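### Sample
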Amino acid sequence: MEWTGARYADKPTVEVGTWIDAPPERVWALVSDVTLMPGMSGELRSVAWLDGADGPAVGARFVGHSGHEALGAWSTTSHVIECEPGRVFAWAVQDPANPSAIWRFRLRPENGGTALSEWMQLGPGRSGLSAAIDRMPDKEQKIVFVRLREFERNIASTLGHIKKRAEA
């Protein structure tokens, strides 16, 4: 059977989880503070809340500045779409009705600590990846596959940083 892989329009996703020996409240304080994320991410350089917001709430917005050796530097505005303290924190990148990506942390108490997962979805709105696909449409599935694997590695690294901080 020939491997076909996902296309961008399929809104492909990736999710990574970990268990943290700390209560959900401590983990929540870390995952919901977007200004901490640049110190835990390989691509995110800086983050700032917008419109006078100083923390997560549905409808709050923040700007993130990122960089990648193959994709260059870019900035995006994200919109908080889910915020249940101690349980879930999610944001849509760019247009919440047609996001270029959606990111979500889920927390749940487990074995005296916290089960934490980070999930992301590419698309359906256009992103920096769309330009690469436009240039090489015959390589779309490979481009999507490679980018999802990068996200998977980056998420695993971010979760490792969160775990280390929460357990300290």
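The chain is about 25% helix and 35% strand. This sample (Cyclase) is used throughout the tutorial notebook.
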